[in-house]
Design a protein that fits this description.
By secondary structure, the chain is an alpha/beta fold. 31% of the residues lie in helices and 19% in strands. It starts with 10 loop residues before the first strand and ends in a 10-residue tail after the last helix.
């Protein structure tokens, strides 16, 4: 069991957008459409400036950056109905439901503290079963005089939870949110929502890759008991496509022949799932079914420019199979993506991942997914789960 990092806590205060909900993906889609009306193209360059900000601050940043012929209030008034219509499409981030059910089931008091207006928060969580009941307090940015990075919203959360700020653990995705939590005298876990930015969260007490990696026992809270032999079962998700040539490093540099998939057409799926090492079952259209371990992410050792999908089919093949259709069902999680001090340590870790996946896939809870209909149906018929 992990030792407490700093101090024990009794309550948890969570941010909403980018921490529990994958709001960023929907915001990007809405902004693409909205800016298109002005002949502008949303390219995401403002993401870093708007994450964790109040709606008014975020609007001002976009209006300024794109030179829009409107003020921030007009921008918000026009954007709000478009965004509201998409609230039902905002999905929980991986690990969010698991965390909320776990803490609630153990009687850990929770508060939701977001820079969004209270009405907007309640609308968003209304699409997710039991979420409103999980929280003893919900505080919106319109209920305090200053939003994050001001500590006011977190101090108000502690007040409503009837506890001292020092007894609270904050879970946040943004730098303003982390600053607010620390200024309130709370312990803070950062779960950065912007890729490759973990180094900017130096004031956080812990930085984790995703909610799947949160270890409550480090803070004196009840531990998760759902890990099985070094693996975490997850709701299955699916991806398919022709095998493409990768970076030329799998076989040549690592001695590990990965069957890479193109990211084209999978951007929304990739944005939903944290980088890391996963495993599951694979089917090649003409060859059969195989155990599989895969990495998703930027591969810090090689510093990829884009998020990639690199499955390793755990079988010795005598020839290449570029262009062959590959279907994957991903059923478990092993670890977050991390950097390594040497190529040797990276290779050793990949082989350890293989051993963990091979063993786990023989367990009944994972083995049953080999019969998933997604793998069995015609590979030429597009059938996309997400």
């Amino acid at each position: 069991m992990a030792k407490p990092l700093k101090k024990l806590v009794s309550c948890v205060v969570l941010d909403l957008d980018g921490t529990l909900l994958n709001t960023d993906g929907v915001v990007s889609e809405v902004l693409k459409v909205f800016l298109g009306k002005y002949g502008k193209q949303w390219d995401g360059r403002e993401t870093q400036r708007i994450v964790g900000k109040t709606p008014s601050e975020a609007a001002a940043a976009v209006v300024e950056e794109y030179g829009l012929p409107c003020g921030k209030d007009e921008f918000l008034a026009e954007l709000y109905p478009i965004f509201s219509a998409q609230l039902c499409n905002i999905k929980p981030l991986p690990g969010a439901n698991r965390l909320l059910k776990h803490l609630s089931g153990h009687g850990v008091p929770m508060a939701l503290a977001s820079n969004s207006p209270k009405e907007s928060i309640e609308s968003k969580i209304s699409y997710h079963q039991d979420w409103k009941d999980y929280f003893s307090a919900i505080i919106g940015g319109d209920e305090v005089t200053a939003g994050k990075p001001s500590p006011e919203i977190f101090l108000e959360a502690a007040k409503r939870l009837k506890t001292e700020p020092s007894s609270c653990l904050v879970v946040e995705d943004s730098i303003p949110g982390v600053a607010a939590g620390k200024a309130a005298g709370m312990e803070v876990i950062a779960v950065p929502s912007i890729p490759k930015q973990a180094h900017l969260y130096t004031s956080a007490d812990e930085v984790i890759n995703s909610l799947l990696d949160l270890q409550p026992e480090k803070w004196g809270l009840p531990p998760f008991l759902d890990w099985i032999e070094g693996t975490l079962p997850i709701d299955p998700w699916y991806i398919s496509g022709p095998v493409i040539k990768g970076f030329g490093r799998g076989s040549k540099v690592l001695g590990i022949p990965t069957a890479n998939l193109s990211t084209e057409g999978h951007s929304s799926l990739l944005s939903e799932h944290p980088s890391g090492v996963y495993f599951g079952w694979a089917r090649l259209s003409t060859r059969g079914f195989y155990k599989m371990v895969m990495s998703i992410g930027w591969n810090p050792y090689f510093n990829n420019a884009e998020k990639t999908i690199e499955p390793w089919l755990l079988h010795e093949f005598n020839e290449d199979f570029y262009g062959e259709e590959l279907r994957l069902v991903i059923v478990g999680y092993i670890r977050p993506e991390v950097n390594f001090p040497s190529l040797e340590s990276l290779i050793a870790k990949i082989h350890e991942d293989r051993r963990i996946a091979e063993k786990a896939l023989d367990l009944p809870s994972y083995l049953k997914h080999k019969d998933d209909q997604y793998l069995k149906c015609s590979l030429h018929r597009e059938f996309n789960h997400s």
